[in-house]
Each structure stands twice: as structure tokens, then as C-alpha cells.
Design brief:
3 helices; 21% strand; single chain; alpha+beta; Cell division control protein 6-like protein; 68 residues
Amino acid sequence: MDAPPLSYDPLTTLKNIQDHLSELHMLGFLSRRDNNQGVSGGQYYEYELDMGPEIIIRTRTEIETNEV
């Protein structure tokens, strides 16, 4: 039995996630730390919330309740 075909391109999905994280970083929601583990570990970013989670949840709730 063959595996069903993928309905999305994993690289496109990864790129979309990376772009979204970068935008959230530029808007001040996330802080970003560069990591370089050399040839064996590669280079990557680590993200974390740059503001309290209650602010983010409250803002999201306000946006969702004001949708038309």
C-alpha cells in the first residue's frame, strides 16, 4: 500500500513559520537569540516571549471579540 501524497510542501511550511516568527520578533512580541553550534550543530535561532503572556492573551481576545 502506497503512502498518500502530501498536500503541502514541508519546506514551504517551514519557511512560513520562520517568516512568522521573524515578523513577531520585529513587532516586539518575541526576543531572538542566535545560536551557532558549528559544523556539527548548525546555526539556528531560539525565540521566547518578550512580553507577559497575559498581555498577549488579552490582546488576542480583544481582537477576536471585535471581529466583524
